[in-house]
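> call design_seq(struct)
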């Protein structure tokens, strides 16, 4: 089939991007669900509980829910879970595409003089492109500090 050097790295990278995509998706969804629930509780605390239990309970409940929303939204912005999820998923799919084209001797691999070398070059280009996007995003985020 193919030497372990090129193909093994491709398999490792596909698995890494798959895992990172899944974990970022999970974190993004978990934070968003908590933000939605905490945000929905603010009117509950300020309206219903305020009148039933007294101003103190409603005030504290609304304040805590508001703090939770701000903290989680700030974490979402800082760590870019949604953007990382989508970017890692796109990279994993691009690497899978390269794998299938190579194995099927299709696309650019059909007439290549050295398909193994081409696979390594195209795999590394895909990874390098994703890494460059990651660095650019984090540099942009650090400029505000």
């Amino acid at each position: 089939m193919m030497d372990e050097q090129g193909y093994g790295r491709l398999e490792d990278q596909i698995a890494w991007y798959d895992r990172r995509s899944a974990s970022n998706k999970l974190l993004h969804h978990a934070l968003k669900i908590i933000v939605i629930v905490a945000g929905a509780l603010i009117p509950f605390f300020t309206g219903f509980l305020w009148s039933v239990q007294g101003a103190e309970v409603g005030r504290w409940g609304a304040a805590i829910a508001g703090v939770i929303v701000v903290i989680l939204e700030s974490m979402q912005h800082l760590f870019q879970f949604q953007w990382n999820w989508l970017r890692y998923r796109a990279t994993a799919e691009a690497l899978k595409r390269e794998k299938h084209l190579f194995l099927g001797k299709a696309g650019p691999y059909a007439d290549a003089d050295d398909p193994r070398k081409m696979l390594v070059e195209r795999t590394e280009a895909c990874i390098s492109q994703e890494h460059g996007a990651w660095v650019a995003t984090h540099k942009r985020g650090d400029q505000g500090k």
